[in-house]
Specification:
Helix content: 40-55%
Strand content: under 5%
Number of domains: 1
Radius of gyration: 21 Å
Largest sheet: none
Low-confidence stretches: none
Number of helices: 3
Mean pLDDT: 86
Number of strands: 0
Protein backbone atom coordinates (compact mmCIF):
# COMPACT_ATOMS: atom_id res chain seq x y z
CA UNK A 1 0.00 0.00 0.00
CA UNK A 2 1.39 3.40 -0.96
CA UNK A 3 1.23 6.46 1.28
CA UNK A 4 0.97 9.97 -0.08
CA UNK A 5 1.36 13.03 2.12
CA UNK A 6 -0.28 16.27 1.03
CA UNK A 7 0.38 19.48 2.95
CA UNK A 8 -1.78 22.54 2.51
CA UNK A 9 -2.58 25.63 4.54
CA UNK A 10 -5.85 26.41 2.78
CA UNK A 11 -8.97 24.65 3.99
CA UNK A 12 -10.53 24.92 0.53
CA UNK A 13 -7.68 22.87 -0.94
CA UNK A 14 -8.03 20.28 1.79
CA UNK A 15 -11.77 20.05 1.13
CA UNK A 16 -11.03 19.49 -2.56
CA UNK A 17 -8.58 16.66 -1.81
CA UNK A 18 -11.08 15.03 0.56
CA UNK A 19 -13.86 15.24 -2.04
CA UNK A 20 -11.54 13.70 -4.64
CA UNK A 21 -10.52 10.90 -2.28
CA UNK A 22 -14.17 10.11 -1.49
CA UNK A 23 -15.07 10.10 -5.19
CA UNK A 24 -12.23 7.70 -5.95
CA UNK A 25 -13.02 5.61 -2.83
CA UNK A 26 -9.54 6.21 -1.46
CA UNK A 27 -8.95 5.72 2.25
CA UNK A 28 -7.54 8.88 3.83
CA UNK A 29 -6.76 10.47 7.17
CA UNK A 30 -6.43 14.13 7.94
CA UNK A 31 -4.39 15.85 10.64
CA UNK A 32 -7.34 18.18 11.16
CA UNK A 33 -9.28 15.12 12.41
CA UNK A 34 -6.94 14.64 15.38
CA UNK A 35 -6.65 16.80 18.49
CA UNK A 36 -3.75 19.25 18.63
CA UNK A 37 -0.72 18.29 20.70
CA UNK A 38 0.81 20.70 23.24
CA UNK A 39 3.43 22.03 20.81
CA UNK A 40 0.76 22.84 18.21
CA UNK A 41 -1.34 24.58 20.90
CA UNK A 42 1.69 26.62 21.98
CA UNK A 43 2.47 27.60 18.38
CA UNK A 44 -1.14 28.72 17.96
CA UNK A 45 -0.94 30.81 21.17
CA UNK A 46 2.20 32.55 19.85
CA UNK A 47 0.66 33.13 16.42
CA UNK A 48 -2.49 34.62 17.96
CA UNK A 49 -0.58 36.80 20.44
CA UNK A 50 -1.73 34.97 23.56
CA UNK A 51 1.68 35.26 25.24
CA UNK A 52 3.08 37.55 27.92
CA UNK A 53 6.61 38.68 28.68
CA UNK A 54 7.93 39.57 32.10
CA UNK A 55 11.18 41.30 33.04
CA UNK A 56 11.44 39.42 36.33
CA UNK A 57 9.56 37.06 38.64
CA UNK A 58 8.12 40.07 40.47
CA UNK A 59 6.92 41.54 37.17
CA UNK A 60 5.31 38.19 36.28
CA UNK A 61 3.41 38.04 39.58
CA UNK A 62 2.32 41.66 39.15
CA UNK A 63 0.90 40.81 35.71
CA UNK A 64 -0.87 37.71 37.03
CA UNK A 65 -2.18 38.96 40.36
CA UNK A 66 -2.19 42.70 39.91
CA UNK A 67 0.04 45.25 41.57
CA UNK A 68 0.77 44.46 45.21
CA UNK A 69 -1.73 41.57 45.58
CA UNK A 70 0.87 39.06 46.57
Amino acid sequence: MATITITTKKKSQLDLFIALAKEMKIKYTSNSDRPKNEIEKADEDIRLGRVYKAESVDDMFNQILGEGNW
